[in-house]
Amino acid sequence: MPAEKGSAFLLKVGDGAPQPAYQTVAGLRTTQLSINGDPVVITHKGSGGWRELLSGAGVRSVSVSGAGVFTGSTAETRLKAGALSGVLDDYELSFESGERLRGRFLVTRLDYAGDFNGERTYTLALESSGAVQSL
To answer: Within a 13 Å sphere around the CA of 116, how many CA atoms are in the beta-carbon half?
Structure first.
């Protein structure tokens, strides 16, 4: 598998429609995705001293974080509105290979910063709610 460009790792937000159209959150310089699993341990005396996990059980989640330059795009405005209202929204992560992950996420953190004579930047964190689909 060839290496993929980090600039092609895009965060997109839905438009709120039942079948959402997605728009790229502009100005992201860095993005990170974490797929988390909280396993169910079923170790017992007969496990021979080795931990055993129950396949398919436990809690799974996806966390997304990013940082970038604020441009005032429609997608950034929607993201900020979601952060202020605490409402779940549809998000999509797309990769250079064409793979996409879609699901409902909550903006759990949105920070803005700026320096005198500098650009206004932001960092964000999203947490999944429900299943995240790989397309």
So the answer is: 0
Helices (H) and strands (E) in the chain, counts: 1, 7
Query: Which is higher by pLDDT, 5 or 34?
Result: 34
Rg value, the chain, Cα: 18
DSSP code per residue over 69-89: E----HHHHHHHHHHHHT--E
Q: Are 9 and 93 in contact (CB under 8 A)?
A: yes
Q: How many residues does the chain have?
A: 135
Element holding 23 (H helix, E strand): strand 22-24
- With tokens 């170790």, the residue in question is 43
**HSE of 87 in the Cβ direction (CA atoms, 13 Å)?**
12
Would you say 73 and 89 are in contact if contact means Cβ atoms under 8 Å apart? no
Instruction: Write the pLDDT tens digit of every residue in 4-16.
Output: 887 788 999 999 9
Percentage with pLDDT > 70 across the chain: 99
What number of other Cβ atoms are within 10 A of residue 39's Cβ?
14
| Sequential DSSP letters for 89-106 | EEEEEE-TTS-EEEEEEE
